[in-house]
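ZP: hey, is the magnesium ion complex queued? I don't see it on the tracker
AM: it wasn't, my bad. submitting now with these inputs:
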Amino acid sequence: MLKIENLHASIDGKQILNGLNLTIPAGEIHAIMGPNGSGKSTLSYVLAGREGYEVTEGSVTFGDLDLLAMEPEERAVAGVFLAFQAPVELPGVGNANFLRTALNAVRRAKGEAEIDAIQFLKLARARMKVLNMPDDMLKRPVNVGFSGGEKKRNEMLQMALLSPKLALLDETDSGLDIDALKLVSDTVNSLRGPAFSALVITHYQRLLNHIVPDRVHVLSAGRIVKSGGPELAQELEASGYGAIQAAAA
Ligand code: ADP
Ligand code: MG
Ligand code: MG
């Protein structure tokens, strides 16, 4: 499904990713952990196609697609969901229209019929109930004035509706409270299945108590320096990153 080979990337002339290799088979959830500054967010930005990141070597394929050659919107339509894209605020764009447009772009790409506003509302409301979101969040402009928790809910609503083939979640160090943690993990777990893969990027082990990954990888200085099963996350929680970094240096 996702195959990253020998990925090197830089920003502003500073080399951040240094030969990263990672394969995520269909149906698996992998976690990337690592100390601050190891390049976790850089990896998610490169996979998302964010401007300013230069790939200097290596390749990323998604199925048989050359992901790095695709525009960010093309990646989304192909079934890649990038969790950091949703929190953009779009004044003047109704949330329901925004979500339905995104969903229909994906449906068209799959050769499925588009859904109309009425069908969409049915789907969205059912999901929103599970996510504990008030109905009026569909009428408001996208993310405008949404609290942090509401943005996270809206992002998870979008992910659940799109039902992506690959979800990339960079849960930045700063702050998932316990409710947000449960929201993210419940949504990811509800999507689990043979055609769904996810890359969960996190500084802390606690998220991985809720989303139990198939594999855990440790990123240090822009490379994967250790891989293991879910128990690796527990070990890291107990021992910290120091020993692994020292051994890899
Ligand atoms: P992580 O998410 O693992 O904490 P990041 O990918 O955010 O790490 O950052 C990796 C390294 O890249 C850090 O040393 C950071 O200071 C550096 N970095 C990030 N953005 C820039 C930038 N725009 N210019 C120069 N260095 C950057
Ligand atoms: Mg950081
Ligand atoms: Mg980060």
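AM: back. Residues 11-12, 14, 16, 34, 36-42 surround adenosine-5'-diphosphate (ligand 1) (CB under 6 Å).
ZP: great, adding it to the tracker
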